[in-house]
Amino acid sequence: MLRFALTLLLFTLAFGVLSSSPVFSDLILAKVDRRIDLTSQIVRITTSLKVENAGSNPISEILLSFPENQAKHLAYLTATLNEGKGKGKASSGAGLPTEVVIPKDVPDSLTFYSVSLHKGLGKGESLLLDVLAVFTHALEPFPEKISQADIQLLLFQDTAHFLSPYKVMVQSVAVKLPEARVESYTKLEGTKLSGSELKYGPFHNIPPFSYLPIIIHFENNQPFAVAEELVREIEISHWGNVQVTEHYNLFHGGAKSKGEFSRLDYQARPYVRGASAFRRLVARLPPRAHSVYYRDEIGNISTSSLWGDSKKTELEIEPRYPLFGGWRTAFTIGYGLPLRDFLFESDGKRFLNFSFGSPINELVIDTLIVKVVLPEGSKDISASVPFPVKQWQETKFSHLDLVGRPVVVLEKNNVVPEHNEHFQVYYKFNSLSMLTEPLMLIFGFFFLFVACIVYMHADLSISKSSASYLAKVQWEEVQATVQQIHNIISHCLTAHDKLEASLRDLSRTGDVQACKATRKSVDSLLKGVSKDLKPLVTFLQSSPQAAHILPKVEELIAKERDLQERLMAKHTTVVDCYEKKLGGREIENRIASNQQKITSLRQEVDDLMEFIDEI
Ligand SMILES: *[C@@H]1O[C@H](CO)[C@@H](O)[C@H](O)[C@H]1NC(C)=O
Ligand SMILES: *[C@@H]1O[C@H](CO)[C@@H](O)[C@H](O)[C@H]1NC(C)=O
Question: Which atom of ligand 2 lies at the shortest distance from residue 422's CA?
């Protein structure tokens, strides 16, 4: 506090010397009303001045002065002529041109802005001027560090007397504070605090460069959201879309958080939630915004909500954790907008008309970089911004680009919501260029088709072989079927062997019953087998691939059947003979003719089996 008081004292001394300087004495300020708004992290001072020309020469510029500690925080300054009748009327017309000037014989510690009047102010004439000055980082947290449970207290310092190179006849100040506690404030004669409004003055006949320090210490728990850097990329696509992507690097610019953060305390005890911590931010997007997303380094965040009407779209975003003093977070929001709302034509040029600043409410941006990505092939590019910015051009490449897209880059420090004015980027564009990419695609596909055709022709064997492949598959099926038939027949032959064996056993043991039992089991086995054969043969008959093999298979099956019948007959005869107890010779005579046939048939069947096994 002592430090401030000393600085202020020095100011007063310095200006005291200057007060007799004649340079500025032609103008007098008949009335000055100042309103200081301290309800957010951004300080806004609105001053209405009644300026009178008391000299004899017309005057075309008015000087505004700011002490060093304010000048370095000044983000935005605009002066407008108030042509309305009396107070409460809005200022009309655009802001008057203002620029920094360095008049002679003034201390370095003051910064002067010159407001140029369109029309000189003649002798004895007066005008009303409204000045809005917006400051960032002008509220000093005091104490600088607070714990999770503390409220945030801030210091604001200014002068009760309007600091001006001109004499002021009558003036007053009203300070609007947040609806919260006022810790202390400088008390001067006539100072009044009513509710959240603090009034100083009126003061009369103040000499030039008069400085009467005031300090206000008050509670303010508004979110001190400061974007250290914000990169806004606005990409124009002539196919109907403007894509906006905003990369935020945000921190809480209020009183630093000290001690350890306890999430338990934070969640369980509302009173230690950190009154100044902020949990959510609201971005006001243009109407008809679509495909809105919000993500951080980890991924998309779903705890954002979106609502809107025909005038605006509001996106409420909630970082993953509440932000306490000094904490940071980085995230990206993106959205698409209809091109026709922002792209226009005049004098054969197209131009984008877009708002400059961030859509987030009451955000302070230390460094704002706006990149406008124009369609490939844009020419004669120029930008028009209503305030000074650094400007340059880059090139961006994305898929299908041949020479890259021109990018207009605008950079500005210390940006406040007042900078959300419209800027324009003008460029010339040949509509035919728009066809470049589709043509590239068309040619791309064309060449792809040509390549396919060439490929198909060059490699016709593929299509042939695919037919032959089919044939191969069919042939394999035929082979498999034939193999199955082969297996079945060999089962049958094994059964035949069993029958023969049972007859040999019979001749040795004379056990008729055992022989009959074997016969029975072989009978049923052969019956089942003939059922299995049927579908296999049907398949071969329907398959053209099997044409050459089918006769042999059918012959094999017929021969085996014949062989089977003869074997059965032989078996029946032999068993009969045994039951009738006939002699061995007698039996041999009875089966002799059949036995010959059986032997030759067996030979034929074996040959056929060998043949079909080899296909
Ligand atoms: C996030 O969501 C947007 C829109 O839904 C989508 O375009 C983007 O690819 C998503 N990003 C991630 C990392 O999931
Ligand atoms: C840009 O848009 C704003 C808001 O719609 C409008 O007021 C302004 O006149 C436009 N500027 C130009 C140059 O068209």
Answer: 1
